[in-house]
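Please decode residue identities from the backbone states below.
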């Protein structure tokens, strides 16, 4: 099985200088591509000069994560993609355990490694940790990270596990399935597009497996393209959560109480931000609530029962029952 390791990049020359040499060193015999979203810095020239082995695809505009990948991946023919952020440090042997499982299991479709914090290497990283799940109301969380409660890695999740979604920071997917489903939803722009895609994979065929593979480890800085303290990040998270539920949740389509619950949670969150004097964040939430897509969002019904869906409220568990670790969930 041929693997293409694909980095999306925009004005990330300093990150490429920091992380690309180790990626090349520890990814021998696998093709490496950079999809550049029309960078205005020296990214393209740097790669051409110092790493001619890396294949460059240069987009005409900054198309963001979703559309940038969709355009670039049409030019990449390998059977398996690893979509990896430019702010990730890989480790020796990181590819082998994942490739071995893809070769041994024809149903394996999506996978992710263990993602730890580059700046605090004994803790999980916010974007992915040990694989993602989603609750009844569409709120995502991870093994090792629930909202802003991030666990230390003490080996508690050192076993392979079926997951609902894999992190877009380091996202392995069979190319055939990616293209059959039309790739990422380009309306999402940034954030949750990988969760939406994983949800659509489950709806397509629940025999298609998504796994966390514990014996592969990478380290992620996080927030390199959009900082965690940026109101724009809040906007995309709130807006894309709404769009994802409209597209994928049969319960959201039929149960008005779910819509009311989500609306109340969103309003309470907005006023929490207001009372915290974070006015730009408050505005971002309300902008997200009332945002509309360019085209009508069409719900597609699943062909099967969706697996690995947490059938409770992670917000209730977190706030009312103080369940801050994945292992504490019932």
């Amino acid at each position: 099985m041929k693997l293409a390791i694909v980095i999306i990049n925009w004005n990330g020359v300093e990150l490429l200088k920091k992380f690309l040499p180790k990626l090349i060193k520890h990814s021998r015999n696998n093709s490496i591509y950079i999809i550049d979203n029309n960078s205005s810095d020296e990214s393209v020239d740097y790669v051409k000069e110092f790493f001619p082995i890396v294949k460059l695809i240069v987009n005409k505009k900054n198309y963001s994560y979703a559309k940038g990948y969709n355009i670039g991946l049409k030019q990449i023919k390998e059977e398996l993609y690893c979509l990896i952020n430019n702010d990730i440090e890989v480790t020796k042997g990181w590819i082998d355990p994942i490739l071995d499982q893809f070769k041994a299991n024809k149903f394996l479709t999506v996978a992710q490694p263990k993602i730890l914090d580059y700046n605090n290497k004994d803790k999980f990283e916010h974007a992915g940790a040990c694989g993602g799940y989603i609750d009844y109301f569409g709120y995502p969380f991870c093994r090792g990270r629930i909202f802003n409660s991030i666990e230390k890695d003490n080996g508690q999740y050192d076993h392979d596990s079926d997951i609902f979604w894999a992190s877009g920071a380091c996202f392995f997917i069979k190319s055939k399935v990616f293209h059959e489903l039309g790739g990422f939803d380009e309306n999402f722009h940034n954030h949750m597009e990988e969760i939406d895609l994983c949800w659509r994979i489950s709806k397509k065929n629940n025999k298609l497996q998504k796994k966390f593979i514990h014996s592969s480890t990478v380290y992620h800085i996080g927030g390199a393209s959009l900082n965690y303290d940026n109101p724009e990040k809040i906007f995309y998270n709130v807006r894309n959560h709404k769009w994802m539920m409209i597209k994928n949740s049969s319960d959201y389509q039929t149960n008005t109480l779910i819509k009311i619950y989500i609306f109340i949670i969103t309003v309470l969150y907005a006023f929490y931000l207001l009372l915290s004097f974070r006015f730009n964040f408050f505005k971002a939430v309300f902008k997200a609530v009332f945002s509309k897509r360019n085209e009508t969002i069409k719900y597609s019904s699943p062909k099967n029962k969706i697996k690995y869906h947490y059938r409770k409220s992670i917000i209730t568990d977190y706030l009312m029952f103080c369940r801050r670790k994945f292992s504490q969930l019932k």
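Observation: The chain has a mean pLDDT of 94.
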